[in-house]
From TrEMBL:
InterPro entries (UniProt xref): MTMR12-like_C (IPR022587), MTMR12_PTP (IPR030576), Myotubularin (IPR030564), Myotubularin-like_Pase_dom (IPR010569), PH-like_dom_sf (IPR011993), Prot-tyrosine_phosphatase-like (IPR029021)
Keyword DNA-binding: no
Record-given protein name: Myotubularin-related protein 12
Single GO biological process annotation from the record: phosphatidylinositol dephosphorylation
SUPFAM superfamilies: (Phosphotyrosine protein) phosphatases II, PH domain-like
Assigned keywords, A-Z: Cytoplasm, Sarcoplasmic reticulum
Highest taxon of the lineage: Eukaryota
First and last residue of the signal peptide: none
Positions of the Myotubularin phosphatase domain: 173-611
Length: 717
């Protein structure tokens, strides 16, 4: 039996953005609900534009039952072309990956998205000509290589009215003044200076227009090797120790070039390492952290656990959930990255030692570690505007290759790696461990990860500031000439109305007390002491990671010295790190001071909201974090009403700083999928299939238990 809605009779037209063009469409397409074997779904029209793939049914035409958390740009049944991960066709019940030219057209289309949605479309009832047009159109526009200027970003920028101010207190780091203010904020202006050497990109196209280097570094040194081998400032600690990053020289060089570069580096190190007053510790991230290829492989395996076609697949994998999760190695990579950030924080905080992060381009793992360290050590980076400014500074202006790493142009899969997603996963670990320390919520992080694939913002669609600047000039439809005016993702009003934006703000954020009130120490909540660092690692590294082999013995001795009030022995970094870690976790948490993530086995968790939000089987009805949030928001609303009444009674002016909170009545009717998915379908856990029992024959103790499951939702959510 097939449960269907009748095909729609009235014409439903897609909502097109400025610059968006309809390319192809097909009527009488049947969209399955998340397939559970019942074939339930609805008829509608499938369209492809130069911006998105969209399914339009009769619900699309009505504004009734609009979700509370509606995205104004990308609807529930919209997939931006950059968000399409893989497309499969079903031929005689067999799935086949669709790429390039098609000789035969499928009867069913399955679209896997980078935000983990899965769309199933049945084309059996669609006209053959329309099937050919829509399938070949979708495959061509979402899977084949394209030119940068063909991105919808440029079409939208030339056609959309510019009536938004995208700054929203976010420091964009596009001017020299922005860098000087950041130096002043962190008290780094004593030892470091903002330079204009790269104006006109005469040093390097990979470097930003303006950046910060140690005061003793000359302009000639910066120009000599196109910025390579130059320590670039990221952030200064309250005690004066600084976090720096540096592009390494290529490893394969002839002897004479290598000797010259080594002599140049030794000279640079001697100018910034002046023991015992100024210590420097180097960390070559290419040897101490997983490679980009390892990260990509792990994430590819990991995301397959959540791209669920149907209920049967879900329950088949649920019984092996923990072993499948461990085999991906994704959580282990998150743990290693967090541990590395703790190491760097210990050097800065306890040993008062400058840390120099080294990487081939200094635009991938350097961005991850430097951002994490700042989130852990600088409470400003845990505010919404501070975190956005941090992403601008380290990633957007810092030259992370979003275009290549996200493979937006489908040019080369070799360059693809989810480096920015890795950072967001690491920050999420901190957000869920210390919620009051962050002004933003996990919903904010989830929406930010989705925005990676929305090509109306320039933030995540260029490899460097130079590439953005050189592609900014172009013909505008409005003025006939002049540069494009790109939107920034930080203007959240483009995607969400104020009511929806409230979900991005943490109502329980512990705001920093005013300086005049900070003299009295308030009692802080003491969190439960956790276990110490894991004793075993996945792969013990043969390299120390802090020193490169090329560095001569003298430099090693100089750099090897440590200064620290609490460290007696400097011979074994892991022990001092463990002492630092245990010591911090034995004290009450200061939400505006240093934050160290808990990285013991079960503490590193799956980011449930991002990865499980489209899977009805994983939902908790009336439960999950949203149930708690709903109660908190209701209480806040009540407190605000009482405050207004009190102010009125005392004839005082009502404060204009009252944040509007969304109405979440009847929170029991919500599920843990909220606010992203409105699916409320009850999922019945099937009897364990015979084939699964056969797989588990060796595990007699599990077989003896009656129908006991490893419950995914209970563990992760």
């Amino acid at each position: 039996e097939i449960h269907i809605k009748e095909p729609i009779e009235k014409e439903v037209n897609p909502h097109l953005l400025p610059g968006e063009l309809l390319l192809c469409e097909a009527s009488t397409v049947y969209k399955y609900m998340q397939e559970d074997g019942s074939n339930r779904g609805t008829y509608g029209k499938l369209v492809c534009t130069n911006f998105k793939i969209s399914f339009l049914d009769d619900d699309s035409a009505s504004d009734d039952n609009e979700p509370q958390f509606k995205n104004k740009i990308v609807g529930e049944n919209d997939i931006t072309l950059q968000c399409v991960d893989q497309i499969y066709g079903v031929y005689d019940e067999k799935k086949k990956l669709l790429t390039g030219q098609l000789r035969k057209y499928p009867e069913k289309l399955i679209i896997y998205c980078k935000d983990l949605r899965v769309f199933n479309f049945c084309l059996r009832y669609t006209k053959e000509e329309e099937v050919k047009r829509i399938v070949s159109g979708i495959v061509h526009h979402s899977q084949t290589p394209k030119l940068l200027k063909r991105l919808f970003l440029f079409s939208y920028a030339s056609a959309a009215p510019n009536n938004t101010d995208g700054r929203n207190q976010t420091v964009m780091f596009e001017t020299l003044e922005d860098w000087r203010e950041e130096l002043e904020r962190t008290k780094g202006n004593v030892k470091y200076k903002a330079v204009t050497t790269n104006e006109g990109y005469r040093v390097s196209e990979k470097l930003p227009l303006y950046f910060v280097v140690p005061i003793c570094i000359s302009e000639e040194s910066i120009l000599k090797y196109e910025g390579r081998g130059i320590p670039i400032w990221c952030w200064s600690c309250h005690n004066g120790a600084a976090l720096l990053k540096m592009s390494a020289f290529p490893k394969e060089q002839d002897d004479s070039t290598s000797q010259m570069q080594k002599a140049f580096l030794d000279g640079i190190y001697k100018t910034i390492s002046k023991p015992p007053y100024e210590l420097l510790r180097m960390d070559d991230l290419s040897s101490s952290l997983p490679s980009l290829q390892d990260i990509q492989t792990a994430y590819t395996r990991f995301k397959q656990l959540f791209l669920i076609d149907n209920s049967t697949d879900f329950w088949a994998t649920d019984v092996k959930w923990f072993s499948l999760l461990e085999s991906t190695n994704w959580l282990e990579i998150i743990r290693r990255v967090l541990k590395k950030a703790i190491e760097v924080a210990e050097c800065l905080e306890i040993q008062h030692t400058n840390v120099l992060l080294i990487e081939e381009s200094a635009t991938d793992l350097c961005c991850v570690i430097s951002s994490l360290v700042q989130v852990m050590m600088d409470s400003y980076s845990r505010t919404k505007s501070g975190f956005q400014s941090l992403i601008q500074k380290e990633w957007v202006i810092g030259g992370h290759g979003f275009l290549d790493r996200c493979n937006h142009l489908h040019k080369s899969e070799k360059e693809e790696a989810p480096v920015f997603l890795l950072l967001l996963n690491c920050v999420w670990q901190l957000v869920q461990q210390y919620p009051p320390a962050f002004e933003f919520t996990e919903t904010y992080l989830t929406v930010l990860s989705d925005s990676l694939y929305v090509p109306i913002f320039s933030t995540f669609f260029f490899n460097s500031q130079h590439q953005r600047d050189t592609n900014k000039s172009g013909e505008s439809l409005k003025t006939q000439s002049g540069p494009f005016r790109f939107l920034t993702v930080w203007d959240w009003s483009v995607q969400f109305d104020p009511k929806a934006q409230a979900f991005l703000n943490n109502p329980l954020y512990a705001e920093k007390p005013k300086p005049d009130k900070s003299q009295r120490k308030t009692a802080r909540f003491k969190h439960q002491r956790q276990l110490s660092l894991p004793l075993t690692q996945a792969k013990p590294s043969t390299k120390r990671g802090f020193f490169r082999e090329e560095t001569d013995h003298l430099i090693k001795n100089i750099l090897g010295k440590r200064i620290g009030k609490f460290i007696n022995s400097s011979e074994e970094p892991p022990n001092s790190l463990r002492e630092f870690y245990d010591s911090w976790h034995s004290k009450p948490v200061d939400y505006h001071g240093l934050l160290l993530p808990r990285i013991d086995g079960p503490e590193i968790k799956v980011w449930a909201q991002r990865y499980l939000r489209w899977i009805p089987e994983a939902q908790l009805h009336g439960g999950g974090t949203i149930a708690t949030a709903a109660k908190i928001l209701d209480l806040m609303e009540e407190v605000q009403r009482l405050q207004v009444k009190m102010d009125e009674e005392h004839s005082q002016a009502v404060s204009g700083d009252v944040h509007s909170v969304p109405m979440l009545r009847n929170s029991a009717r919500l599920s843990s999928l909220f606010p992203f998915a409105s699916l409320q379908r009850q999922s019945v856990k099937p009897a364990l299939p015979t084939s699964t029992w056969k797989d588990l024959e060796d595990e007699d103790d599990l077989v003896k238990r009656d129908d006991e499951f490893v419950d995914l939702s209970g563990d992760v959510l």
